[in-house]
Amino acid sequence: MGGMSDVQRARIRLQISREAARLFWDQGVAATSGDQIAEAVGVSTRTIWRHFRNKESCAEPVIMQGVVTLLGVLSAWPKDRFLEDHLKAELARLGVEEPPVSFADEMLATQMIWLADTEPALRASWLMACDQTERELGVIIGNRLGLPPDDLEVRQHAAAAAAVIRIHDEHIGAAIVAGADVAEYADVEALSKRYAHAIRTATGGAIGDPVI
Amino acid sequence: MGGMSDVQRARIRLQISREAARLFWDQGVAATSGDQIAEAVGVSTRTIWRHFRNKESCAEPVIMQGVVTLLGVLSAWPKDRFLEDHLKAELARLGVEEPPVSFADEMLATQMIWLADTEPALRASWLMACDQTERELGVIIGNRLGLPPDDLEVRQHAAAAAAVIRIHDEHIGAAIVAGADVAEYADVEALSKRYAHAIRTATGGAIGDPVI
DNA sequence: CGACAGTATGTCACTAAGTGACACGTCGCG
DNA sequence: CGCGACGTGTCACTTAGTGACATACTGTCG
Asked: Measured between alpha carbons, how far is A202 from B200 in angstroms, rounded to an integer?
């Protein structure tokens, strides 16, 4: 029974996504055909469409990698801690241990997010990825506030928080693509403070402090 | 010189959008072909693709109508007024005067927004429409704070505000489609307060009060 | 080890989305 | 009237995406 395991499925999707993103970046989305992606990955074109509903969404897994770290950190946020403290500790820990996503993938994600600013097809994918982020944030925030994830207030906080995270990602991504030093964004302390402040502001202070 | 005027172009786009939205609602997006939309409007299929980059985006003008009222009201928000007061006055005025968008269009927009919850193709269009809203909000907020629209703080406020407006629209839309009385949302006073509160919260209090 | 079941993939024919090129009708202008 | 500009229709064409079927792979049970 069982078919392909989720992790296996995720791996092939990521593999396809990497090649697609590389091609999108090198020659543009419109100029990249499904056949080309398939050839680059080494599978048949049909397989591409089995794993992705359309060409643009081939970029989604790579784009997702760009936010998956932060989302993972937020999932593990204990109720009795300040957001900035938790972020700082976790991001520092990730810097020492094996990072969950490779630097090359982060770079690809950054490039895709930057491309999304001008390529409308990719923008839709990017927004869909952020939409997914928002739903997951809804669960986290709902949990923290002791409310169901589909509660109106929870959804508002989640949407606002996801929105400012997106703006940050776009902002940093644009700077990096423009040639800014990547190290500039390696200051865990400052980064944590900025994210925490943005989320706290966007939720009117509802998310950020310990909850009793 | 000059070609088709913008208003003319907008009119044909809206016309196409109405028929497309009706068909999407009646038989689903996938089951609706470009040829069908063209026939319903009474133009050639080629003309459809001249005005829209793809099938799903045919719904965008109608979807946009759903937020255009609020956006117009916000554009005219004087610096020395509280948001709730301005909203209340303007929405009440619009109720008396000729409304900027017909009730039928509002209903179509509501249906499309509801459909977007399950149809991924439409969701992308809906998110793109919200993205547009966000950009316009950026101009309004930047103006209000005396900052350029691409300032990071302005963008964060605009994104968060656009996000909570979207959540509200989805929430109200879902209720109406589910059969709630439309009149329930005709209470201008309550509606103004809710929008104002949501925006004020999402911007950490930065947007909502008069600015000196 | 070997037969079997389930499923992911390849192949191929097919539908439909979307584009390019060109001809035609219309409208404003001298 | 003649001219130029532009929106639209027609048609051929490319390519995204699906359905159907054959095949190869993978794990399980005897």
From this structure: 9
